[in-house]
Amino acid sequence: MNNLHTYLPQDRRRALARGENLPSRAHGSVLFADISGFTPFTEALRHAYGSRRGAEELTKHLDAVYTALIGEVERYGGSVTAFAGDAITCWFGDAGRGTGDGGRGTAACAVCCALALQTAMQPFAQIPLPNGEMGRLTIKIGIATGTVRRLVVGDEAHYWLDVLAGETVNRTAVAEQLATAPDILLDEATVYALGETITVAEWRTSNATGERFGVLGGNTAVIQPAPIPLLPHLDEETTRPWLNPLVYEREKTGHPLLQTDFRPCVALFIRFAGIDYEADTAADQLNQFIRPLQAILARYEGTLIDLTFGDKGSYAYLNFGALSLHEDDARRATKTALELQETARSLSFLRPLQIGITYGVMRTGAYGGLSRRHYGALSDEVNVAARLMSTAAPGQILVSGRIHKQLAPNFLFGNEQQVSLKGRSEPIRLFPLYGEGKQRPIHLSEPNYHTPIIGREAEQRLLAEKLALAQQGQAQIVAIIGEAGLGKSRLAWQAAQLAFQQGFRSYGGACQSDGLNTPYLVWKQIWTSFFALDTTHTPAQQIHHLREQVRRYVPERENALPLLGRLLALPIPENSFTEGLEPKNRQTALHVLLEDCLKQASQEAPLLLLIEDLHWIDALSHELLVALTQALSRCPIFFLAVYRPTDLPRLQAPRVEARPNFTPLHLAALNETEARQMIQAKLAQLYPRQGGDVSPALVQKLLARAEGNPFYLEEVLNFFHGRGLDPRHETNWEAELPDSLHALILSRLDQLPPSPKRTMRVASVIGRLFPVSWLICYYPDLGELSQLQADLTLLHDLDLTLLDRTEPELEYLFKHVIIHEVTYESLPFATRARLHEQLAAYLETQIALAPQRSLVAGYLGLSLWAYRKSGQANGLRHERDSGGAGH
User: CATH homologous superfamily for 4-429?
Assistant: First the structure.
């Protein structure tokens, strides 16, 4: 909690401590410092360490750089107003050191600070890497003097943003673009303010703006740097409105050692232009864009990371997955981009947006100096998204190949292009995104799988029995329930095939994790298919066709047609029957209309209605499901629901579970024989030349990794195949798990309260099996034993861990090896090293006390092995002290 104020600029903190606002217009100097070499250095780290470790090493170096730079900025009276990954914007106002001389003093402070920044960067001019390469970081700086706008924007319901903008800020961006490291470029106002105290080595002119900038050659102005000032601490009530709520909760409830992690995320960059920041309307116009952006991000649970202002327009960096990860973050980000395009089109002063989107593993957490920090998500992929934004034409969205691969069936894309981007040694694949594809109903009679279903014989027999009962006029409700990856959708499709063979007509839809507040989301898909609506037709054509369908099924209820407007998102005019109905009566009349349509249709042929991911159903869709199952219990209708266990707080158990004709079908993992068959079938598909032949050793390795989870098995093999790796080669098994598995597991962990989530992460360092006594002793910050027991009980109830034994001591087990691996791999290497060191130190103290010294020594050896794997040589001290135990 003591670090919350470090997310605010230094001058804002001082003003808040005094109970004051900063003026919306101010005079002073802006310094824009760009760390040159950042992109190639990022790529070099990726080559040297891999994507995950590379991102962590990048942040370590970035923290060291920013600690040095921010210290100098503060010594010269400046404030860091914004971060942008490899750059910072700093403000030197008249109030900073009390100059009050129309710009001369602030300009001198900024120039002297710039020279100090150059000196501070010298230790980073050559950074040796373990593969023999040399990293090089330098700095180039632009300084401009004049009037700036200091705006507070954003929706109070979300959080406020501190903005430094205007022509003076823009000029620093122009200067930075003309500079080559280690240049310091000054605008004409700065040169004029400093007069004879500086010399200009040369003048450079921007072709884009015509502005001139002087390259600093010498400086005789002497500003004595002050000791780094103590900044005021602010209370929670004052600080909270300025922080993203998720960042606030993370800082409030987190432990410093566990505040960063690695996770697959989507990076989205948006360039927007057209606001005149010198005009009095600037704050209002910026709010007209930022507030809808905040609302859209809140709906899709994304995060605004950076907001940067410059000469070629402003840009925003949005991230999906950094603070709240979902399996469908690529879809959420893409829908956000499309909605923001619509928002921009509605604002006449904004030019068309330029957007770039990509996906990859990122290091998430705070970075910066001790007194000024910023929450970010960093990786090489973030640079790619920024480059895609710059490459995009106005009004265009460009996505990477990884985004395209995830979304191609449901969105409209242009042809693949390959482009070389600045700072990248190899070209990347990109695709123009044109929009969301028309919502296509689930056609359950169409072939959807290339291989026959493996196992599930008992489940298929039960489904066949229930289908037979439904066909006889006894409506059935069957729920396929199981954790992610167990093959629920595969079995549901198999049920649809059985139904098709018996003459059923099938209609299906899927709930969305971000659709809990979207009325009738899943039913829109089902009823669009039921009424055979062509969504490519105009609304008028669809309404005409819908009227014909209602007349066909229930002509006596045609007057209720307008009630279908909200359900199907069609503008159907009200009539004398519907316009006077109260909301409750409207809902009842809609239910009756749909019930009667299904009754009539089921007389023509039995019906199967499938709802996928029912755990995400919205309230009105839930009400409709309950009403239909109650009213149609004596009709030949088979209701098939697919959902995960609903014991997480955000999920709700469907009320149809209480119906007498409800049958739950709980899926378990495949047994060893079934898993072996699936492995052979998948290998035959992916590696046809090998005919699916597989050694027993490979099968055992796959079984140990995936433990009978079909999705895990498929994704591990798809991962090998996609990387061009042969799973039969032992060395290939050192590869990290695919991002799809990380997203699947981490999306579950992100739904946990902070305390049990922290317990999972700390326990993962011990191993898949962890004694409770070790857990609380090696990491006492987990809290009291009662809290830890409550956490472990919740994790057990949520099927993330299992109680392994109670005697001779209490031990738990991660339910699945991949849950353990993903949890452990999400920890940064430095965090792992610290935790392994704490664990090793605790175990060493227990050796002399343990009745079974060999058991403890064995665990110590395992701990030291993992500690050495983290790359920290200090762990060898424990190995020598403990007699060289090893794994």
Answer: Nucleotide cyclase, GGDEF domain (3.30.70.1230)
